[in-house]
Request: fold
Amino acid sequence: MRILICIKRVPAPGAKIPLSDDGQEIDTTYLGFTTSPHEECAVEEAVRIVEKVGGETTVLTLGPPAAEEQLRYAVSVRANKAAHVVTDTTDWGPERTASALTQAIRSMEAKEGPFDMVFFGNESADSAGYQVGIRVATAMGRPIVNGIKEIEVGEGSVTARRQVDGGFEEYELNLPLMLGIKEGINLPRYPTMKGRLASRKLAVTPFETTAKCGGLSKIELFQPKEQTSNTVVLGHGPEAAAKVVDVLVDLGVM
Amino acid sequence: MSVVLVMVEHDRGALVPGALEALTFGRHLACDLGLSLHGVTIGSSADALAKQLGHYGAEVIHQAHHEILCDYGPQAWGETVAQLARSIEAAVIITTGTDSGNEVIANAAARMDLPMVANCTKLLPRQGLWELVRLRWGGSLLERASLDAPVKILTLAPNRFEATLEPGAGKTESFVPTLDPCLAQTVVRRRVVESKGISLASAPVVVSGGRGVKSAAGFAPLEELADLLGGAVGCSRVATNNGWRPHSDQVGQTGTRIAPQIYIACGISGAIQHWVGAMGAKHILAINTDPEANMVHKADYAIIGDLHEIIPAIVDAVRTAQN
Ligand SMILES: Cc1cc2nc3c(=O)[nH]c(=O)nc-3n(C[C@H](O)[C@H](O)[C@H](O)COP(=O)(O)OP(=O)(O)OC[C@H]3O[C@@H](n4cnc5c(N)ncnc54)[C@H](O)[C@@H]3O)c2cc1C
Ligand SMILES: Nc1ncnc2c1ncn2[C@@H]1O[C@H](COP(=O)(O)O)[C@@H](O)[C@H]1O
Reply:
């Protein structure tokens, strides 16, 4: 089984998302970076499948040179190979991103044969366009379903389940296929010593692209109006419990 | 190019929340642009909705029929919307910004090779180029963007718009798309029903724990309190990542959006990705050792102190009051 996972480097903000003065970017001076959570789970799922049925996993990212950090992290949690479409630091937009990823996947497949499965996140954590995976799958003529929280690999086909209100929807897809994964499908492992060593030695395959800008262009980012509250402090420590009962009664939940 | 087409999202014949709001939004837009409003429902399970959709201003309701459209299937639905939009020369395509609404419309846009905008909160139609505002980061950040496309394809952010009545002609027309049989693989094959008590999304009370709870066992008093109040237990991503709670309990950007009467957040700092899941709560009680925690600042009520002492005391007080 050959599985490719598309991952994106995103900042990891805390209580607020700080912006640059011109509103063009998130101010990442004091922020760390991570992989979008859905995609972190997609990497874990691919690694588990390969551990079970054999094969190889490759991670692919499109982003600035520093996105190599996320590729190396994926290898430290047992992904095997990594490929990188290196961009400048600007936002590429969903159409351009999808067409650049498609180009990279096509050239990888031309060299080493098709990927049985390609995993995406349900949506990227930062721009949340809900479309890059669908565009790649459409361009390559492969089936894709989003929101997947359970995968069972059979002979030549895969059963994929997605959570909906009150249960699961089940799909059965033939290989080769693509899936959009949701956090909760598994609990990702932490890197091991051995994994960290492997990630340090990793040779990342670079890709160039001719993908053109799409029709959606960012003008600026801004914060939503902040919801402030005049917090009523009911007290300090367990003595405040009686006041909680008053509040619960007032709100009609007791 | 004289039509605003709204894909009326439904689940096996039942409208999803936001569907009528999207239709209403489409009607206002059609009115502003001097276009006419059409709706489309996919699959015969939704045929019975036509009359109701007429009450929200749809002039024509296209009812898409095909054997592959017997249940939800994002690629088949997307292809259907794309074919219909081409045949009626739609200028705008709109639907709800749910996971499936976004999925179908992204498939339609990909098939038409056009841009698609997820989760819009505002639209400023101009000649040619449109300006709009959309959600990023699950709603923690907004983006002002321009859209340059011959057909504008977008979804509407949830809970931002209202549905209002306005009679329309509501004429129904059957539409039979040409669908490649291979699209059937991404149609729902089987449904598994799973009822597990009160759902987090609709619970009237949510008692939630984060890093401050410190262990899986530490959640026992929170469960007890939730039980007493007929509520559900929630958690932060730290609790999920440590394996203390299942992911289905997680509140936030990559978890569940909740809307209880009261949210009791214990040992949760209130990171922005958690907050976007919690902000739908009518009232918030934060229990935290740190009076400067973001959750405390955003809460209506707070108790400062150790949750391991405070929650059992609340459980006792509630029990006494209930007896
Ligand atoms: C893209 C992305 C998506 C994410 N999605 C989500 C999401 O869906 N949901 C989510 O929750 N997080 C999400 N996160 C993670 C988020 O950024 C935070 O890391 C997380 O919410 C913090 O959890 P916490 O509040 O439990 O822990 P901390 O931030 O560590 O806070 C612990 C709090 O407990 C208090 N405390 C400690 N001990 C006690 C005690 N004994 N009694 C009372 N209070 C105590 C502390 O004062 C502190 O305020 C996401 C992150 C990213 C990057
Ligand atoms: N820059 C990128 N590099 C690699 N994969 C990406 C990138 N952007 C988006 N993706 C993938 O496409 C999915 C959907 O992204 P989006 O359309 O932005 O919501 C993400 O979860 C990723 O798996």
